[in-house]
Design brief:
2 copies of one chain form a homodimer.
Chain A lengths: L4 E5 L3 H13 L6 E6 L3 E3 L4 H6 L8 E3 L9 E5 L2 E5 L4 E4 L3 E3 L2 E4 L3 E3 L7 H4 L1 E2 L3 H18 L11 E5 L3 H20 L8 E6 L10 H13 L2 E5 L3 E5 L2 E6 L3 E6 L2 E4 L3 E3 L2 H4 L9 E2 L5 E2 L2 E6 L4 E2 L1 E2 L4 E2 L4 H19 L15 E4 L5 E5 L2 E4 H28 L6
Parallel strand pairs in A: 1-2, 1-9, 2-5, 9-22, 11-18, 12-13, 12-18, 13-14, 20-23
Antiparallel strand pairs in A: 3-4, 6-7, 7-8, 10-19, 15-16, 16-17, 21-22, 24-25, 26-27, 27-28
Helix pairs in contact in A: 1-8, 1-9
C-alpha cells in the first residue's frame, strides 16, 4: 500500500507547529511528510517590528527550518509556491510541482493596502526579514543623509506609521528606543525628529482594554509620538502622505519614511488557487478543512474562524496559528489512520501583550491587566513560549529573550 | 600695548598642529589665539576610507577639538568660514566676523571633479564625517534592498571607485573586508558583487614603488577587485558611469554606488577670498606665508610647495600638513616677538604606507619596502603617531589603533 503524502506549505507558526507535531506522532511507515517554504529559515513575524526599527538584529529573529524539523521524517523543500491545483492534488512551485494526498496551507499574510493610492510604491511594510532590514536601513540612510545637505530637509527625520493596531504601536515603541540612538549616531537634534501615527479608526489598539490603551498612548506621547486618530491616509506620495481633514479638505505630511502597518490579508496564493476567500482568508470548517476539500487544511493567517462571542473573525495571530497547527496535526493523524472523528477548533486565549519598547508594555494575561516592566517581562515570556512550543528548550536558549530588567 | 591676535582657520592636521604648538610656546600675555572650525570635532581625514566602508565607526575617527586645545589659552569658535578679507584683516563667517593680526589658513581640501558631467550629482566622495557615514549607509541600503525586489538589480551590488590613488586603493582594501560581511548580513552571494576601480591614468598609485604596486593590485584582485586602468570616466549618471573605450566608443557600467576618489583641490574659500591659486592651492613662500601678505600663512591642502627633486608639487598629505603646522607655529612666535628670520620649510619624508584592508598594506619607511602584516602594523603606527603629535599619549590611548595582528 502506498504511503499517503502530507505536504505542508509555509514554515511560519502554523506550518512549523503542524510539522513538529506530525513528526512526533507519525511513524516513518505511516506517511511521507514534506514541508515547503520560500526561505530556508523561519522568522518570528511577531518580532519583525524590532528588526525593522533596528533594535534587534534580524538574525536573532530567524532560525533555520532544519534546526527544528526531524529531517529523517520530514523532507524540506526550499521553494516558492505559485498556486495550488486541488483538482490534480498538486502544488505548483516556481520550479517544479509537488503532488500531495493531504495538504496544509499555512502561507501567512501579506500587507493589505485597501487600494489606497501610492502605498504599494511609497510605503514600507513590516512583512518579512527582507522588508524589515530594508526598512531599518532606509531609516538609517535618511538620518545619515540629513547633515550632508546644505538645505536641511526635516522630512528626512519624519517617520509616519499608518495604523495604530498591534504592529503599528509595537513598531512605534521600538522607534522611541531607536531614534535617540540614531540622533547620537548622526549628530542630529532629537527635537527635529517627528514620529507620527496616523489611524483612520477612532481608536488606538481596538479591542484592547481602554485603560491599558490610554497608558500606552500616554507613554508613547511622552517619548515623542504624535497620534492622529480618526485620520485617514488618502494617498502616499514620493514626499510623504496626504490625509483627510474635515469633510473635503486634505493635508500633506512630508515624510521620507512611511510605514504601512494598518492591515494584512491572507496570502494571494489562496485566490490564485481558486479557493473562495475574503481578502485571502478562507472560512474553514471547525476541523480546519476547506469546505468541499476533505484533504486540504488551511490554518493561520489564511484561515478565517468566527469568534462566536463577538460574532467577528478572530484576528490573525501567532497564538491562534500555533493552536491550529496542533489540531491540524492530530486531525491529519486521525485521517491517515482512518479512525475517529476530527477534532474541532476552539481558541484557548492565553492573553495578549503589546510591547511599547524594550522595557515597557501593556497586556492581559491570566485574567489580569499589566503595564510597564511586568507586562514587558510577560511579553518576553510569550516570545520565548513560541520558541519552546516549536523548537523545545534548546531553541529557547539559542534565540530566547533574556534581557529582562 | 594691544596683544596681537592669531586666528587659525580649520582644525585639521595643519591647524591643530599649529594651535597645539602655539599654546605651548606662547604666553597668555603675548598673544590671543583663536581657532575657528566648522565642527566641534577634528576628524582623521586619512581614516575616512574606513568609516566610509563601514569597517571603523566614525566616532573612532573623530575627537573633540577641546580635547586637545588648552581652552585657557585658545578660544575655540565653532563656525563656518565664508571668506577672508585680507584688506581689512578679518574673516567672514556664516554668523559674524572675526578680526585678526595674523592668520593661518588650514582649511583642507575638497573633491575635484574636473568638470566631469554628473559626478557632483551622482557620485559620493570620501570627504568628511557626514559624507563617510552617508556613503556607508548608502552601500548598506543597496545590499538591504537587493533581496526585496522581484527582479533583482545586480547593479545594486556594484561599487565603482573612480581613482586608483591613495584614497581609492585604501577604500577598496576596506571594501574587500566589508563586502563579505554585508553578503552575510543580507543573504547575498558574494559572486554577485562587483568592485570596480576605474583610473584614467595608465597606472595604479603613481609615485609608489612598482614592485609594491603590483603586490597591491594582485592582492586586491585576488579579493575581487577589477581594475580598469587607463580608462576615463566620461560621465556619471543615475544608473552608473560611462567610460571611454578606444577612440570614440563609450561603455556604460551600471552601478548603484559610484565613489569619486580621483582628485582633491584646496578649499574654494581660497579663491572666494581673492588669493591667487591653482585649484584652491596657493604657492606659498618657503616661510609658508602668502606672497604679498606678511601676516597670512597657508598650510596643508590649500598650500602648494614644489618638491625640487622631481619639480612637481608635493601631494597634499597629513604628514606635510603637520610638519607645516610645526613650522608655522614657530614662525608666528618669531613674528610676534619680532625677532629673527622666519624658518624655511623642508619636508622630512618619514615614509608612506598605503593600507589594503585590516591586515594588509604596502609601504616604504626607514628606506625599506614593506608588504603584508609588517606594513599593516606600520600603517597603524603612522595613524597613532598623528594622534600622539597632536594630542599626546592620552589621545593615542583613547583613539589609537591597537588591533594589531
Amino acid at each position: 500500500m502506498r504511503k499517503p503524502k502530507i505536504v505542508v506549505l509555509g514554515a511560519g507558526y502554523g506550518g512549523l507547529m503542524t510539522v513538529t507535531r506530525l513528526q512526533k506522532q507519525v511513524g516513518v511507515n505511516e506517511a511521507d511528510i514534506v514541508l515547503i517554504n520560500k526561505n530556508d529559515y523561519h522568522y518570528e513575524t511577531t518580532w519583525l517590528h524590532e528588526a525593522s526599527a533596528g533594535t534587534l538584529h534580524h538574525d536573532r529573529v530567524r532560525y533555520n527550518v532544519t534546526d527544528v524539523i526531524d529531517t529523517n521524517k520530514v523532507e524540506f523543500i526550499k521553494g516558492t509556491v505559485l498556486s495550488i491545483n486541488s483538482e490534480e492534488k498538486k502544488v505548483v512551485l516556481e520550479k517544479g510541482e509537488v503532488e500531495y494526498d493531504y495538504l496544509v496551507v499555512s502561507l501567512g499574510a501579506e500587507p493589505e493596502t485597501f487600494g489606497i493610492k501610492g502605498l504599494k510604491e511609497h510605503a514600507f511594510a513590516i512583512a518579512n526579514i527582507n522588508a524589515a532590514r530594508q526598512l531599518r536601513e532606509h531609516i538609517e540612510y535618511q538620518f545619515a543623509t540629513y547633515n550632508m545637505e546644505e538645505e536641511k530637509k526635516d522630512e528626512r527625520l519624519t517617520i509616519v506609521v499608518g495604523g495604530a493596531g498591534f504592529t503599528g504601536i509595537e513598531f512605534l515603541g521600538e522607534l522611541t528606543n531607536r531614534v535617540p540612538e540614531l540622533c547620537r549616531e548622526y549628530d542630529i537634534d532629537f527635537g527635529k525628529v517627528k514620529l507620527i501615527c496616523v489611524e483612520a479608526a477612532p481608536m488606538v489598539l481596538p479591542g484592547f482594554d481602554p485603560e491599558l490603551v490610554s497608558y500606552a498612548t500616554a507613554q508613547l506621547e511622552r517619548k515623542g509620538v504624535t497620534f492622529m486618530i480618526g485620520t485617514a491616509i488618502k494617498e502616499a506620495t514620493e514626499n510623504g502622505i496626504v490625509v483627510g481633514k474635515g469633510e473635503d479638505e486634505v493635508e500633506e505630511i512630508k515624510a521620507a519614511t512611511v510605514v504601512w502597518a494598518a492591515g494584512v490579508r491572507g496570502s494571494s496564493i489562496i485566490e490564485n488557487s481558486g479557493f473562495e476567500a475574503m481578502r485571502g482568508r478562507v472560512k474553514v470548517q471547525p476541523d480546519l478543512r476547506v469546505p468541499g476539500h476533505d484533504n486540504v487544511f488551511i490554518i493561520g493567517d489564511c484561515s478565517l474562524i468566527i469568534d462566536e462571542k463577538v460574532n467577528r473573525p478572530y484576528p490573525p495571530t501567532a497564538q491562534i496559528a500555533m493552536q491550529q497547527g496542533e489540531l491540524c496535526a492530530s486531525n491529519l493523524v486521525a485521517l491517515i489512520r482512518d479512525k475517529g472523528e476530527l477534532g474541532h477548533f476552539t481558541f484557548d486565549n492565553k492573553g495578549t501583550v503589546c510591547s511599547l519598547g524594550h522595557d515597557d508594555a501593556i497586556g492581559v494575561a491570566f485574567g489580569k491587566k499589566m503595564t510597564g516592566g511586568t507586562a514587558s517581562f510577560m511579553k518576553k515570556m510569550v516570545d520565548n513560549r513560541a520558541l519552546y512550543m516549536i523548537g523545545g528548550p534548546s531553541l529557547v536558549l539559542k534565540k530566547g529573550k533574556f534581557n529582562v530588567l
